[in-house]
Design a protein that fits this description.
293 residues, alpha/beta, Rossmann fold, seven-stranded mixed sheet, 10 helices, 41% helix, 19% strand, globular, binds S-adenosylmethionine
Amino acid sequence: MTTQDIVDSPSRTVIRDAYEERLAAYWNTKQNDPVNLLLGEIDGLYHHHYGVGDYDPAILDGAPEQREENIVRELHRLENAQAELIAQSLAGLGPQDRVLDAGSGRGGTSFLLHDRYGCRVDGANISEYHLEFSRRAARQRGYQDKVRFHFRNMVDTGFADASFQGVVTNETTMYVDLPELFGEFARVLEPGGRYVCITWCRNDLVADSSPESEEIDRHYLSRMHRRSTYFSALAETGLVPVSVVDLTSEAIPYWELRTHSSHRTGIEQPFIDAYRANRMNFLLIVAENMSPR
Ligand SMILES: C[S@@+](CC[C@H](N)C(=O)[O-])C[C@H]1O[C@@H](n2cnc3c(N)ncnc32)[C@H](O)[C@@H]1O
């Protein structure tokens, strides 16, 4: 740790308005959500994101008493595959490097990045419950000096300028204003540092809005952005895309498999319908920091 590192300070305003209050309350009260907890029990990586890739259809033909367990395992494998895409996009990092996990959830992506590269990871989160959960997990893993979780708003983290080699957002950008968020990332990333984003968004080329995107926003209290807003906000803040992968078709099997689970939440069909009709997209964006200082 250097003296420039963040100090968690109770005086900093982290939750800035009524919307963020509702959002924090939403995540704080989602403590016993069976899907995410069950999935995380498999390998100790607790995620709050979806998954990519094909599932093995044979798991649906298994013995009825095994079926749910098999589905849960397969969903978790697809979730890990998504986090893997983020890790691969940061290839080249080492133990000397530092990554910001903005909107760190229960810490799954942060731990995976540390396991892969030995890098330090700082998670920023407005949910005190998520922070408590992920800090406990870090202690259990013996990672508390390397993977730390802070009560911070990702749009105003308080970290020093140019103090990170990487920043990641795994399904968190739909809760904040993008130019504000990317401006903060351009500030904390060193020149040439990488920003990796996985997100769902409205495909405004096809539909500016849709019944599905509205239902999803209501369900998650999110404010889903247009696809074009990502790229205008990146350009505005000096984060230059080096790779954009449209994962929409690879995201559909995860949702289809979830419809077979007894732990489905009801939000599966809107994702399936919107992705199949290309009214929403699921994107992996990798950008490098070229903002002028
Ligand atoms: C869909 S979850 C994703 C969690 C994690 N990235 C993952 O992949 O498992 C969204 C997370 O973003 C956090 N969050 C939402 N708005 C935030 C903000 N303005 N600053 C920091 N965290 C925020 C929530 O508390 C929650 O942990």
